[in-house]
Write a structure and sequence with these properties.
mainly alpha; single chain; about 70% helix; flat
């Protein structure tokens, strides 16, 4: 059998990671938990961005 990655599973795991981090941040009110939630949100958004968008938010402009 080959190793097949189901994209929906990957997307679902990223969403679950974000919601868990967001809920923890909301519960604790800790800055570090908020930062972790922000990073999880960034990973979630990255799943739907094209390379130019990723380069732009990374502080690097895509070459023309």
């Amino acid at each position: 059998m080959t190793n097949v990655i189901v994209l929906n599973d990957h997307v679902a795991k990223a969403w679950e990671a974000y919601t868990a981090a967001q809920q923890l941040a909301a519960t604790t009110g800790k800055l570090e938990d908020g930062i972790a939630a922000g990073r999880a949100w960034r990973r979630w958004l990255a799943l739907f961005m094209n390379e130019e968008q990723k380069a732009f938010i990374g502080g690097k402009r895509a070459s023309a």
